[in-house]
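ok here's Trehalase:
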Amino acid sequence: VREHGFMPNGSRAYYLNRSQPPMLSRMVREVHRATGDDGLLREALAALRLEHRYFLRKHVRVALPGGEPRPLARYLAEWDRPRPESHREDVETSSLA
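and the structure:
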């Protein structure tokens, strides 16, 4: 997270266009609940802010009836071609569209 601003989907370069699901804050919370280690919260805060900023940088605005528009974080891959690790499956799926 400190290096890329998000948790990459894997360790290969082609995974840098997408992240793992936004679960880091929940994982930090669960570890804190289990350990009571407040130092973990202080140490994790910067990474949590980076990840949060990553997911909000390309957001959409939505409004519920009678409500003000609010930003909605989007979880998606920034990629317009078949994934290298699933090329055949992606080409087959796109041919059905």
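+1. The two ends are 35 Å apart (CA to CA).
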